[in-house]
Design brief:
Helices cover 55% and strands 18% of the residues. It has eight helices and eleven strands. It has a five-stranded mixed sheet with strand order 6-8-9-11-10. Strand 3 and strand 4 form a beta hairpin. The chain is rod-shaped and about 135 Å long. The two termini are 42 Å apart.
């Protein structure tokens, strides 16, 4: 696994987002067309309703009792009665309510009173509706005579309102479903990765245990055989180092023992160890906070994190440059910054570099920074991130840890 896989994953995710957005946009566009079509149909029905109202007024204004006129009135009244879904208000030029239909009134109508009668509560309710509808395009002016004009206001039907909201509800439900599935898949994948991490770490510690024990025995034998003491001492340091590494691996997957420690001392110890093990052309400098930085940590694991950052800095500088390790205090948190003068990291990879398997080197598993994030975040309750990076100038990694109270 290398960085190309993460680049492909990023591009695939972008393509997925673009395709999903296109599908959602197409769906919303088609739904809006349906809503627009239904809205036009409702307006056409209201226009027929208005025309019927006008005809009834014209017929009744003429003193006519023939069967044709009576039949016309019955037909027109039937058109008006057929509207059982669209709320309508009919007013005169002065804003007086002449008729109303299909509104859910706060009080039931009094069956003993004429339909045009309105209680104070219902009248206030309908006047509020009228004030709102005056600011909408849902109005049809009925010109009966040059001096007599009525106005038909109408609301969208419940069906049209529901259809208008339905696409957005569907999109919200779809997004919620996608997020749930993504979270479930991510959690499963993370759990599987954790099992692999723990299994690999403990197996590594187990495999190292036997040769380390054997080497310790050989060290005692070499000392008794008269081998140069300085040689034996240096070999002993390396054997103890192997033992420390095995101990670190054995701690992965189980909660390490946390102790209060001075972060400055941990940094100084790691820097001192790495100074003799990197190229003489690389200058390693520490700038420690003048006071104690007491934090709760596992020293072996935190030293591992710092050594990984220093090794990555050395690799980024390709054999020459400078590394500066700075400690400090900010907002009740202790921090460590490891800065180098290497080739830098692209901003889009600031988070990707912590993914398991991500590496820019020809050799390497890409596990160092992933382990570092796990140790800092899960075991120490802190953060590790790329604070800044400039191509050709260098990178700064930052670790933040909570101070002990």
């Amino acid at each position: 696994m290398n960085r190309n896989i993460y680049d492909l994953r990023r591009y695939g995710f972008i393509i997925f987002i673009v395709v999903s957005a296109a599908v959602v946009a197409g769906f919303l566009y088609y739904s809006n067309l349906l809503v627009k079509d239904l809205s036009e149909q409702e307006r056409a029905r209201m226009q027929i309703w208005a025309d019927a109202t006008k005809e009834i007024i014209n017929i009744t204004s003429v003193d006519s009792s023939d069967e044709v006129s009576t039949g016309n009135i019955d037909f027109l009244l039937n058109i008006i009665e057929e509207n059982r879904s669209i709320p309508v208000l009919l007013t005169d030029d002065d804003g007086n309510i002449l008729n109303h239909r299909n509104f859910d009134l706060p009080e039931p109508l009094d069956s003993t009173m004429p339909y045009s009668y309105l209680s104070d509560v219902n009248y206030t309710f309908l006047m509020g509706k009228l004030e709102h509808l005056r600011h909408t395009p849902n109005v049809i002016n009925i010109i009966i005579t040059p001096t007599n004009c009525q106005h038909l206001y109408y609301e969208d039907s419940k069906l049209l309102k529901s259809l208008s909201l339905y696409p957005y509800i569907q999109v919200i439900v779809l997004l919620a479903f996608v997020l749930i599935v993504y979270y479930a898949v991510s959690s499963t994948k993370r759990a599987e990765q954790n099992k692999v991490w723990v299994g690999l770490s403990k197996e590594t510690a187990h495999q190292l245990g036997t040769p380390i024990s054997s080497l310790m025995a050989w060290m005692e034998l070499l000392e008794g055989m008269g081998v140069d003491k300085e040689v034996v001492t240096e070999m002993d340091k390396d054997v103890k180092r192997l033992s420390t590494i095995a101990s670190r691996f054995s701690k992965i997957g189980s909660r390490p023992q946390m102790e209060q420690d001075n972060l400055n001392e941990v940094v100084e110890s790691s820097a001192s160890y790495m100074t003799t093990r990197i190229s003489s052309r690389i200058k390693l400098t520490t700038r420690l906070y003048p006071g104690a930085l007491d934090v709760s940590l596992s020293r072996p694991l935190m030293e591992w994190v710092l050594e990984n950052l220093i090794k990555n800095a050395v690799d980024a500088m390709q054999g020459s440059g400078s590394i500066t390790i700075t400690t400090g205090l900010e907002k009740s948190k202790a921090f460590v910054e490891v800065s180098d003068t290497g080739k830098g990291i692209q901003s889009r990879n600031f988070d990707t570099v912590f993914n398991p398997g991500y590496t820019t080197k020809k050799r390497g598993w890409g596990l160092g920074l992933a382990l570092a994030r796990r140790i800092v975040a899960e075991y120490h309750g802190g953060r590790i991130f790329v604070k800044s990076s400039v191509a050709g100038q260098g990178t700064t990694f930052r670790i933040e840890l909570p101070l002990t109270k």
